[in-house]
Amino acid sequence: MRMTLDNPATVAAPFGDRFAHLARVDLPGGSLLMLSGQVAVDADGRVVAPGDAGRQAERIFELIAAILAAHGAGLTDVLHIRTFLTDLADLPAYGAVRRRLFPGTPPPASTTVQVGALFLPGAVLEVEVTAAVPVTGNAAATRPSE
Fold first, then answer.
1. What is the pLDDT of residue 13?
2. What are phi and psi of 6, to 5 degrees?
3. Run means of pLDDT, 10 residues per run, the chain, 146 residues
4. What is the DSSP secondary structure assignment for residue 107, as one 8-state letter?
5. Distance between CA atoms of 104 and 108, rounded to whole angstroms?
6. Which element (helix H / strand E) includes 35?
7. What pLDDT was estimated at residue 140?
8. Counting beta carbons within 10 angstroms of the beta carbon of residue 59, is it exposed (0 to 12), middle (13 to 18) or buried (19 or more)?
9. Phi, psi (rounded to 5 degrees) for 138
C-alpha cells in the first residue's frame, strides 16, 4: 500500500497550504481518493457567487473534477459525497446540480448536514468526496510523481 498527499496544479493551492486537497491510497486493485472539502472559490481564493448555492455547487464540482482528473479519475468514480450546507433551504438548488452531474441509479452514497457557518463569508456550501479508480483505468498512468 502506498499513500500520497497531493495538491494538483489543476486547482489553486489550499488556503495557507494548511492541508492537502487529496489523499490517495494505492492498493493492489486500484486507488482510493479522498478529497478535502471544497468551497466555491476562484483562482485568487475569492468566493464565487456569494450566497448562491446552485452557482457555488457548479464551481465546487468543477474543482472536484479537476482534482480527480489529476489522478486519472472523474465524477463517475465518486463513491460518497459529504455536503455541508449553511441552510437546508438551499438543498433544492444544490440537488438540481447533483442530479445533473450524477444521473446514474443509484447515485453515490451521500451525507448532507446543516452547519452554522463555513470558514469564508459568503460560502454557503462545502463538499468533499471519496472516489475509487481501478488500476486498469487511467489512474495507473497518471499517478503523481514521487
1. 86
2. -145, 145
3. 93 85 95 97 94 98 97 97 98 98 95 97 97 71 42
4. -
5. 8
6. strand 30-35
7. 42
8. buried
9. -70, -15
Q: What is the pLDDT of residue 142?
A: 45
Query: One-letter amino acid identity for 118?
Result: L
| Cα 141 from Cα 91, distance rounded (Å) | 37
Question: What cell does 27 get?
Answer: 492498493
Looking only at Cα atoms, what is the longest distance across the chain?
44
**Segment holding 27, helix H or strand E:** strand 22-27
Dist CA 5 CA 48 (whole Å): 26
For residues 46 and 35, give the distance between their C-alpha atoms in angstroms, rounded to a whole number: 20
Q: How far apart are CA 30 and CA 39, in angstroms?
A: 28
DSSP state of 55: H
pTM of the model: 0.90
Crossing angle (nearest 10°) for helices 91-101 and 53-69: 30
Alpha helices in 50-90 (DSSP H): 53-69
